[in-house]
Amino acid sequence: MKRLFKIALAGLFFVSTRALAAPDAGAPPPPEKVVVLPFSGEVAKSDLDAARTATIGAVISRGDPLATESELLTAETAASGAPSDTKAQYEAAGKASSSQWVVVGHVKAHPAGIPGYHLEIEAAQVSSGRVESLARN
Questions:
Q1: pTM score of the predicted model
Q2: Which of 73, 113, 128, 137 sees the fewest Cβ atoms within 10 Å?
């Protein structure tokens, strides 16, 4: 449970990134479509899915609409044609899914049996090409 709590906190990074993009700091930005790509890493698929699910929960709690399953598939296909983990990949995914934001995460287990994970979440604003990253242990 503690592990999922940490993952969920890192997922809230996206909420903070969206707040920075607000045109008026006093008012929340209008909802924008978000595509959360599958997470990658050197951990069990269940842990990758848990981290992605927590991030999707943060997006939903923010009130932003998610890309549909069809749009997600289109985004994944477009992203696969660009170099991995690059601004070009995120822009391709965002444009293909008509999303204003692309979010992706990378998860690694700590070395030498130390409990926990290293989690990095990137949020890319498609219109500006800006990519923000947060890493947590």
A1: 0.80
A2: 113
